[in-house]
Amino acid sequence: MSRLSWRACAAIFAVAASLFVLATATKSLDVSTHVVGAIPVTVYKPPGDERRPVLVVAHGFAGSQQFMQPLAVTLARNGFIAVTFDFAGHGRNAEPLHGGLADLTRSTQTLLGDLDRVFAFAAALPQADGRLGVVGHSMAADLVLRYAETHPQIGAVVALSLFGAETTPEKPKNLLVIDGAWESEPLIRAGYRIVDAAAGGAGKERVTYGDLAQGSARRFVLAAGVEHIGVLYSADALQETLAWMNGAFGRHESGFVDRRGRWLLLLFVGLVVLARPASMLLPVLTTAPLGAGLPWLKLWLLCVAPALLTPFIAFTLPTGFLPMLLADYLVAHFAIYACLTCAGLLWLRARAAPPYALRSGAFIAAASGCAAFYALAMGAPISLYAAAVAPTIARLPFLAILFPAVAAYCVADAWLTRGVGGAYAFSKVCFAASLGIAVALDPRRLFFLIVVTPAMLLIFAIFWSVGASVFRRVNDPRAGALGEALALALAIGAVFPLVD
């Protein structure tokens, strides 16, 4: 058996094992889906009719209820009823987020209204025993604090990646704040401020102040080795959340902790490895590799110059042409970046040789095969077990605007960097830095780009490896780039909040 065959067998085994573990994580639970108004809701509960505390688990900006599965499954497999849902404008919720970022008062009321409806539904569940708790991440961390302050029936709150909502020693009841140790300093300072107030001085991490029985407890934890999104998969964060809810509600089950993070990692490693043998199914488009073929000094210039110029050009342009928060800015950023890169390639007379007769059928087959691998092999498990990256029908029309801009960037970047060792990774670091400059220029409107940039870099890392396998087979960087562009456009169209 050839090395490629062994690699394919190992990759298939890794993918199958990962999917089996992910699919069976809820095997001992009763999982049901509901719709409350326009809000998609999922209930995770242990089997039987025993009455139990109910915990509402709320996702953050550009998130969905799939993001919160590790928490929901951990809590439910330890005796709680966990309820996840999609906020307005997020996930599969067809209701737009009224107000968006332009009217924060209105958008906040919309989100709090969703929380209110979900809590009313959760409290009325047949097995609910009347005790309620809430977990919120990122944007929702601030929301659940605000909500719990005015709803004293909520007996415990866990706020992950809290941005900085103010609290008092009495409200909300029993507050645990968890940040990733790799999060930004402002978020970490917000957590310390809460325990500082409870301690009457310099509060310490992982020390509980106040009394859980009286509802005055405060605690701050830094989850080791994770950032803003990784905190949702951190065993440290999950164990702390479970222990906090157990203490607040007088329960003692503390066995199962969801470990899907490591299985998702194995799944993606398996799929990336599988891409190499799978790419052998694609047609060879040309015998000699195509691309710009620039020396490193010129390539460095064409990576850095668009990264520096794009944010300043985009800053002057009007946005709001898409009813989707931040996606409109990303369209402009991708399009300008692509135009500057193409202009640079023309200016430097980057070679397009060796020329070849483009066979449209073979090219479409190669690009379509790459797109199918991303959309089906990777997109399907992500949508089931990690994040809602499949757009709803209402979002599909926006792809007519998203895809051309993303495709222009991906094709220009692939033509510039494919076939040059380290160039693709360097260009993506430049792109991330460009987004950072954009946030610095307009922090109020673009702040949440900081939240999604790590996820975008992870996507680019997958594109780097899978795309390299495709390029080695077909020798035309444009085919793989179009597949990447479709996958990225679909993800952007699925995750960013719809607004009116």
Summarize the structure.
The protein is α/β, with parallel strands linked by helices and 500 residues long.
Overall geometry? globular
**Biggest beta-sheet profile:** 8 strands, mixed
Number of helices: 15
CATH C-level of the largest domain: Alpha Beta
**CATH superfamily assignment of the largest domain?**
Alpha/Beta hydrolase fold, catalytic domain
Radius of gyration: 24 Å
Could you give the count of β-strands? Answer: 8
List the secondary-structure elements in sequence, H or E. Answer: HEEEHEHEHEEHEHHHHHHHHHH
Instruction: Kindly state the percentage of residues in helix.
Output: 40-55%
Walk across the major sheet and give the strand order.
Answer: 1-2-4-3-5-6-7-8
